[in-house]
Amino acid sequence: MARATELSVPLKFLDSTNKIQFREYQVEIAKKCVNSNSLVVIPTGLGKTIISLLVVAETLQSYPKDSKVIVLAPTRPLINQHRESFSHFLAISDDYMITLTGKNPAEQRPRLFEEHKILFYTPQTLRNDLVAKRYDLKNTCLIIFDEAHHASGDYPYGLIADTYHDQNADGTILALTASPGSSKERIDELCQLLHVDKTNVHVRTRKDEDVKSYLKPMNIFKIGVEMTELMEEARLIINRLVEERLQYLSQLGHLEKKGERLIKKVTRKDLLRLNTELVKHTSSGDKSVYGAISVNAQGLILYHMLELIEQQGLDTLLTYLEKLMKEARKQTSSKANKNLAGDKRIRRIFFELKKHESEYPKALIHPKYAVLLHLLIDQLNKNPDSRILVFVKLRDSIQHITSRLEKNSLIKPSRFVGQATKSKKDKGMSQKKQQEILKAFKEGVYNVLIATNVAEEGLDIAECDIVVFYDIVASEIRYIQRKGRTARQREGKVILLYTKNTNDEVYLRIVLNKIQKMNDNLKISPEVTKNKDLAIDDDEDIDDEEEVKIEQKIVKAPSKIMDLPLSKPRSPNQETLLSYFSPSKTENPISSTSLRTPDPEIIISKDVPGKFGLRKKLQKEGIILGLQENGRRIDLLHQIALIIINPRTFTKESVSMSEKDLIRLRQARKLVLFVFDFEDFVEQFEG
């Protein structure tokens, strides 16, 4: 394990009172990210924040005192977590840090930006300020893009990265994610959007030698269940209704696929794309387009019903049909809703389910629930202090599952959903309420969270012993985020529940293939493989329930994890950021060993502005670069000295050296050049 003293320079910027010991892979990755736009792909729980702190500490050493660091994250809770970590571990007063979100009035943000050194943003807030040109990023030496996989389409990350690249040629981008995406095109897009060269993609997986000792085993199981006869009957009727709509659209020429059993050939995504195309043709005057739009909408609704049957259960389907019937009675209801609500076969399903609800309600429950209940009881009997997180796609299903689990005295469940309120019975949760529930979950008031995707990222959720996928997501990003909620500080299990011979099973195959594809694409990229950091995981270790009992362990080798924060020795040369900011503090040249080569060809003062792009240009050319504390100065090959002067503040004293120092410099260098920086000057002429 790497000792903290090996970092040398960053120790000046890290708080010695908050003991922390750095892991070797964190140090190695951080070294490669300093002054190089980088993408770090690392599993949840391996200390992305520590890597960020190391990069921040080293970067601040290389730039002028007025330089700023910006930290971006998609949600306010995640931003607050970063702020707390930075305040805890950096030797910098909290007065120099600020969180800026939409809650801060726009007219105040420019002043707040200028007054603070480390700024934490939600992306939309910074994007709005940059578009409005309230301030610029010329003095920002580093921007951290957390959960970088969000960078796509109109998401603000791309615009922010572009603006930063244009305004500050020497600025550094650090992008962090556990899940960059599966396709090579997506990984390339992510690098392009964030201005990261693929030689600077640094990857770690749970199986890499330098990280696996810090992680507890993660045991992954997939458990499949069969549909009931009642579910099969309802699905058969819905399938016929879908086929009728698809044949209608095919005969009108709106579908490329022809022939029988179109339901096997046309997916829900196909209908979503068709809807977009049909809407574009509404201006053509062709009245048949409106009919096709309605039939297509019916097809989408029916596909949703199929998903409810296969993934959620007939109780959730009944809830949906009740809403459909109620909506269809309104005058403003769509033609698609009215047609389906009036269809005899839909009504037959509805009344049959209502009958079972009153006479035999258990028949409406999905078979996956029985497996879930068994898993929870088994785990809580073995370890009453366990914490279990159950991911469920739909809030209606969460309501059904939570109400049933509450009847078991061993299980203390809580629903956990987003902020939007859907109905009187399905109210959203404010961020304050979410934090209260998470605190109660951590303290044991609740031992099971039944959550939507809001719990996938951006929230500080207590370590979970088991993560259950009640339904399967086809997104490899969401899959990685979900399973990252366990096996951090202690051994964890991931349970994948699916319904056999349904789209549920198809989604499972898709997501596992995407995971393997993502690993392969990162591995085979010619540019990325130059990076010796790279070590790619093999395929997911997943066992079927037929082959292994739930108590068995996939990873049998014991491992030891190092909790953070940990102790580190105090360096005698260590200074704090508070002294770094103090005007009365006399700065000493760096006496400790730097991360850089000891015999640089060019030595640049950290006070040279980043707008010139010198650091990155020299680095790109392979020129060995060193640092010094002597004003705004550059030394070339120990022969030439360039002193950069700001004309606005130029006086004899502003050269920042005495006459004796100047004489010594002239004697030590063959040539001394004074360069006046007029780059920011804008001349104005009357008329």
Explained architecture:
The chain is an alpha/beta fold. The protein has 4 domains: 4-212, P-loop containing nucleotide triphosphate hydrolases (Rossmann fold, 3-Layer(aba) Sandwich); 229-364, hef helicase domain (phosphoenolpyruvate carboxylase, domain 3, Up-down Bundle), CATH 1.20.1320; 366-523, P-loop containing nucleotide triphosphate hydrolases (Rossmann fold, 3-Layer(aba) Sandwich); 596-676, no CATH class. Helices cover 40% and strands 13% of the residues. The chain is built from 22 helices and 19 strands. The strands form 3 sheets. It has a 7-stranded parallel β-sheet with strand order 3-4-2-5-6-1-7, sandwiched between helices. Helix 11 packs across helix 13 (335-342). The longest helix is centred in the middle third of the chain and has 25 residues, at 288-312. It is elongated, with a radius of gyration of 30 Å. It starts with 23 loop residues before the first helix and ends in an 11-residue tail after the last strand.
